[in-house]
Amino acid sequence: MPFDLKEIASISGMPGLYKIVAPTRNGIIIESLAEKPVRSVAQARNRVSILQEISMYTNDAEHTVPLAEVFDRIRTKYGADLPVNAKSSTQELSAFVESVLPDYDQERVYASDMKKLVQWYQLVNQFVPYTEAEATETAPAGEQKEDAAE
Q: Please, what are the domains in the chain?
């Protein structure tokens, strides 16, 4: 996935997203994703959710779509200019999510989840570097395989 979400976390009781810097005895050192990042310690009692481990429900009960893939679809379709924000109506948010993930489960993905998706995407898009898809790197390797076959 082009967005590397391994070190980006949402922490219960704390607004926004955070980059995990290092572990400590009592928790983790975190840095806010903001214009002027602030470092602090998230205690072990706080619930830390790593964005890479979060997925969205689809209509297929056995399949979920990783958040990084949803972010990639949003970036492909809209770039940095989203047609919605966290204060948009539930209908607008639902139409937005459906445009990037047509088979999302409308019963299990709540309006609050869609608002978080929009807020998180805006923060990640602004502060987490985006790497181009691996297809550009694999194309030369594919050409080498064809040359080897000849």
A: 8-127 (1.10.10.1650)
